Amino acid sequence: MPWMGIQDLWTFVVAVLVFLALPGPGTFTLLTATGRGGVRGGYTALFGLLLGDQILMWLAVAGVAALLRANPLVFHAVQYLGAAYLVWVGIGLLRPATPAGGDDDGSGVRLRPGQYFRQAILVSLLNPKAIIFYMAFLPLFIDPARHQGVVTFATMAALIFVLSLAYCSVLIGVGNLLRRRIIQHPRVGVWLKRVAGVFLVGFGVRLGVSG
Q: d(Cα 30, Cα 206) in Å, to the nearest integer?
């Protein structure tokens, strides 16, 4: 049974954790701030990232809520498109990276001491693909028949916030060590991406079939 209008709650939790474990600009921003500013610097950057992420999420929520009000059939179509989007992203992560023009591994993040919070917000907000992701991701876990409007969206946002806070606290705890290993051994990041890719393809197929 859906909880607070959220269907497949535990799948939602696992999916969020998988995305958090995928190295990206936010991860390396956090680790760089921790390496330079200690625990205080890490948490300063973390709350900047979390604030920026919540802003993007609620922008996406506004679009999802409009679709939900407009037409249930359209909303179901968006759910199927979201499942296909997850599969597409997962396949992209499974492909070998190209030598030139590939994604930055994050090691080029440059943060100035004392400005971790502001710069972390910018790192988060200057990622417009996050809105597209949330537009595809959130509808997959909403039960159109039992959703509770803003309460459901707020619950999902709160869960993402808590999971992000817990996971990133672990990163801060082992910040310098983890940062050096990922940067000095790029294959670690490659395998993390592949594992995430397998999960995303699985999530997309499962949610598309169950939808």
A: 32
